[in-house]
Amino acid sequence: MMQYSIKSTLLFGALFSIIATAVIMGIIGIRLTGDFLTMRFHSNFELIAQNLAKNAELGVLLDDTIMLDRLVNNMIVQKDVKKVTIFSGENVILVDVEKQITGDIVKITAPILTPSMMEESLIDNSLKEYDKIGNVELGYSKESLDLLKHKMTLRFLFFALLLAFVSGGWYWFFSRSIVKTLNHLVDVSKEVSGGQMDLKASGGSFYETKMLASAFNDMLNGLKKQRKALEKAYADMAEQKSMANVGKFSIMVAHEIKNPLSIIKGSMNILKKPEIDDVMRENMFTYQEEEINRINLLVENFLLYSKPFEPVMCETDMNLFVQKLIAKLDVVNFEKHIKVIQKIDKEPARVLCDTPLMERALNNILKNCFEACGPEDTVEMHSRTLDGYWICLIKDSGPGIKKEAIDNIFKPFFTTKAKGTGLGLAIVKDIILLHEGKIRVGNNEKKGAFFKIYLPCVKRKDQEKMAHVQ
User: Fold this and answer.
1) Rounded alpha-carbon distances, angstroms, from residue 462 to 370, 467, 469
2) Are 292 and 257 in contact (CB under 8 A)?
3) Is 65 exposed, middle or buried (0-12, 13-18, 19+ CB in 10 A)?
4) Which is nearest to 194 in space by CA: 461, 455, 462, 389?
5) What angle do CA 193, 194, 200 make, to 5 degrees?
6) Where is average pLDDT lowest: 154-158, 321-325, 326-330, 439-443?
7) Helices H, strands E: what count in the chain?
8) How remote is the C-alpha of 286 from its chain's centroid?
9) What integer pLDDT is reported at residue 464 of this predicted model?
10) What is the Cα–Cα distance from 32 to 203, expressed in whole angstroms?
11) Which of 372, 387, 391, 368 is nearest to 440 (CA)?
């Protein structure tokens, strides 16, 4: 559905109102003016005909055609006069003169009158009467009148278009000033939604937009204060959670360390016996070394898990990052020679990422895959970008994960391995959540298990503009 902006709505509304008003008023004005000009034009020629009738009185009385012909010739040279005819009282043509002229012809008839010779009229002028002794017929052309009306119409169209252009330009400037301020507020709100709070909105040149910007800035200041309060509250909660985790996991670590310590203690008791041979002695030392390494790994993972992460985010091309990571896998799986198949998207995928933490998370997943696979198995890594997320799929062709273990696989200290600590995948989940992402785990349809990671991509300003237009 098409969306109309304030600027286009104001502009088209103003142009429509101005043009409609100008057309209606112009039609009315042209019609009234045309009627007025026609009336005055006709009245002017009526007056001319009446004056000619007065001047022709003597010539008709004397039947002087030369005198009448001179009057008519003086009249016919006038502009727009086409024909002049003088009739006697018996309606006989005394003089008839015509010239070639275009346009519609209008005829006017004026009587030729002479004072009555009745006695009452001679004594009292107020009772004077006139006798009709002839007629003057004058024909004039409307060509000049039509030309004048045409010029008036053209001038009206010119001034109407000029008025529409000037008014449209003013409305465009006016709406542009409003829309510019609103677009600025939209841009500021997008920056704020992206986490940039050190901004201030300007209100333009109108009182209302200034008030809107002022209210927006007050809202930003309130958000800053609330954000600081939330950050402090989250920091306090994180500290309390960390302390609670330390207490909870200390008990779990103590329980996990108990078995290796028992093995070390038992091997030491055996080593104290003088009758053991060299092979037994070597085995006991090997057991002690393995259990010490196990305790060391357990403590390291525990410290890593219980310590709050402080990520340093930077914009990273995750596809290039994964390609470099895969290049290191030959060293990781050198002993097993497990084949790694990669299907990485060639287009850049920009994600805000702490690369050391993300490398640790991916290595933990890959380590689990390698440990679950045999020499003939494979590990695959796929990546693509969909709906604003970078998606990474890691799957193997090993035995897969037991159904009852899938729901608990990311829980701390949960492990299905004899020498596992149960913290590797728990750390993976925490790192992914720290990047505002999500992770899924499951079994493939045919064979093996998969891990699927979703990380939000960095939004570009040009992409946001394209989405707003669409």
Assistant:
1) 42, 9, 11
2) no
3) middle
4) 461
5) 70
6) 326-330
7) 13, 11
8) 69
9) 44
10) 49
11) 391
Distance CA 325, CA 453 (A): 16
Residue with more model confidence, 138 or 187: 138
DSSP letters of 186-252?
Answer: HHHHHHHHTT--------TTSHHHHHHHHHHHHHHHHHHHHHHHHHHHHHHHHHHHHHHHHHHHHHH
pLDDT tens digits, 215-231: 878 888 887 888 788 88
Distance CA(445)–CA(15), nearest Å, equals 65
214: Cβ contacts below 8 Å, ≥ 6 apart: 203
Helices (H), 272-340: 278-306, 318-327, 329-332
The answer to whether residues 107 and 138 touch, using CB atoms and an 8 Å cutoff, is yes
pTM exceeds 0.90, yes or no = no
User: From CA 434, how far away is CA 240, in angstroms rounded?
Assistant: 18
- Residue 461, pLDDT above cutoff 60: no
Per residue in 63-105, pLDDT (tens digit) is 888 998 999 898 888 888 889 999 988 888 989 999 888 878 8
- State whether the Cα torsion 309-315-318-320 is positive or negative: negative
Beta bridge mates, 378: 339
Specify burial of residue 456 (Cβ count, 10 A radius: 0-12, 13-18, 19+): middle
Ordered alpha helix ranges (H), 56-142: 57-62, 65-76, 119-123
Q: Which long-range contacts (CB under 8 A, 24 or more apart) does 280-287 make?
A: 287/263
Which range scores top for mean pLDDT: 169-183, 250-264, 316-330? Answer: 316-330
- Residues 168 and 161 sit within 8 Å (Cβ to Cβ): no
The alpha-helical segments, DSSP class H, found in 307-376 are 318-327, 329-332, 355-372
pLDDT band for position 382 (cuts 50, 70, 90): very high
Looking at the DSSP bridge assignments, the partners of residue 456 are 389
List the one residue out of 29, 63, 194, 56 whose CA is nearest residue 137. Answer: 56
Residues 6+ positions from 305 with CB-CB distance below 8 Å? 245, 249, 412, 423, 426, 427, 430
Question: Which domains are delineated in the chain?
Answer: 6-149 (3.30.450), 199-308 (1.10.287), 312-470 (3.30.565.10)
Q: Is 87 helix (H, G, I), strand (E, B) or coil?
A: strand
Q: Would you list the DSSP string of 12-79?
A: HHHHHHHHHHHHHHHHHHHHHHHHHHHHHHHHHHHHHHHHHHHHTHHHHHHT-HHHHHHHHHHHHTST
Using CA atoms, how far apart are residues 333 and 325, in angstroms rounded to an integer?
13
**Amino acid making up residue 47:** L
| Residue 305: predicted pLDDT | 62
